[in-house]
Amino acid sequence: MGMDVGEQGGSLSSPNVVPLIDILLVLIIIFMVITPLIPKGLDALVPQPNPNAKQDVELENKTVVVQVSKDGKVKINQEDSNWDQLGPRIEQIFKERAEKIAFVKGDNEAMFQDVARAIDIMRGAGIDKIGLITAKLEAGQ
Q: 57-138 — its CATH code?
């Protein structure tokens, strides 16, 4: 704390704020360095439906949706498949495509382990981005 001497012989005290400013500047620098290092969650790619526009046929042909039913059956778009054929079939579909984006749609009663298994098989087949489709999203809500 600094001290000023007044003209009348009394002392006037004024706080020295320089150390406080130094501490604040150091804290700002620390937070600026730490902020980019904070881990983020997994990136999720969710399709956004447009209720006013008509579906483009070419876009529908490019979109790959793996459907997992409540009894554990798997479909790729509308084509029936099984767990053993899922990986090779996905590799075959995306062999010549530059964008490796697919979606997983699970029934409401489907087991989570089946959906996670489908995602794991798709990752193993080389799919870069996997999005999830829910019933509410499909209905446009």
A: 3.30.420.270
Structure tokens that stand for 75 in this block: 């479909």
Domain boundaries, the chain: 2-37, 57-138
Statement: residue 79 has pLDDT above 80: yes
Tell me, letter by letter, the H, E, C secondary structure of the chain.
Answer: CEEEECCCCCEEEECCCHHHHHHHHHHHHHHHHHHHHCCCCCCCCCCCCCCCCCCCHHHHHHCCEEEECCCCCEEECCEEECHHHHHHHHHHHCCCCCCCEEEEEECCCCCHHHHHHHHHHHHHCCCCEEEEECHHHHCCC
Q: Is the pTM above the cut of 0.85?
A: no
